[in-house]
Amino acid sequence: MHKEQRDGRQEQLSDILGKLFTSRGWGRKNDRLRIESAWAEAAGPELLKDTQVLVIKRGVMEVAVRNAVLMSELAQFHKRKLLTKLRAAMPGVTLTDLKFRAAAW
């Protein structure tokens, strides 16, 4: 399907839908769900209950952790394995590092 623009060009339906998704924030919500799903898969149920994905900025995923002991354990013993799992779960997303932050929720 095409929509005629004022200058005579035709716009693809996929372009129109892409603009609609962006303007409504739906793409960001979908991205967020994808990131949270990848973290849940990589972390597993035990870690998931005490962690929460905050954001991915410039290839670094920031994860909130309920306590300092777990934060230290994740950074020292699980980081490499988690990064490998996350990269596999999110092809096309550049993920260079994991940062853990102490938080309570």
From TrEMBL:
It comes from the Bacteria. InterPro entries: DciA-like (IPR007922). Pfam families: DciA. This is DUF721 domain-containing protein. It comes from Gemmata algarum.
